[in-house]
Specification:
CATH superfamily of the largest domain: F0F1 ATP synthase delta/epsilon subunit, N-terminal
Shape: elongated
CATH class of the largest domain: Mainly Beta
Radius of gyration: 16 Å
Largest sheet: 8 strands, mixed
CATH topology of the largest domain: ATP Synthase, domain 1
Helix content: 25-40%
CATH architecture of the largest domain: Sandwich
Structural class: alpha+beta
Low-confidence stretches: none
Strand content: over 45%
Distance between the termini: 30 Å
Number of helices: 2
Number of strands: 8
Mean pLDDT: 92
Order of helices and strands: EEEEEEEEHH
């Protein structure tokens, strides 16, 4: 049997995922990190991106709205503001959020408003990409 580790993904409103997996890939602020059993213990901030989970020769893909990952030799815990499977994504809602964010960026009312709008735009784009299997 292939070597596995325990992966747990937690959001404020639910335990999104918990199982023994072969590999996970997350987007940290420094780039993508592949996690396997016996990984060097690490804590890293996560960027808006995709979580890929390999279990029994199948790849599961979910969105990640940033957060942190804590990795030990036999366990990884991802804490994120939001995570969604492709089938959970409301495409119309994500498209509307993308449009609102683009409008706020074009208004350029203040630096903090533009920053928040850019974050919202990145989340919407990420959700749409995952929903399309990209």
């Amino acid at each position: 049997m292939a070597s596995t580790f325990h992966l747990e993904i937690v959001t404020p409103d639910r335990k999104f995922y918990e199982d023994e997996v072969n590999m996970a890939i997350v987007r940290t602020t420094e780039g993508d990190v592949g996690i396997l059993r016996d990984h060097v213990p690490t804590v890293s901030p996560l960027s808006i991106g995709v979580i890929k989970i390999k279990k029994d020769n199948k790849i599961l893909t979910a969105t990640c709205a940033g957060g942190f990952v804590s990795i030990d030799e036999d366990k990884a815990i991802i804490i994120t503001d939001a995570a969604e499977w492709p089938e959970e994504i409301d495409i119309q809602r994500a498209e509307a959020a993308m449009k609102r964010a683009e409008e706020r960026i074009n208004e350029k009312s203040s630096d903090s408003d533009v920053f928040r709008a850019q974050m919202a735009l990145n989340k919407a784009i990420n959700r749409l990409r995952v929903s399309k299997g990209e």
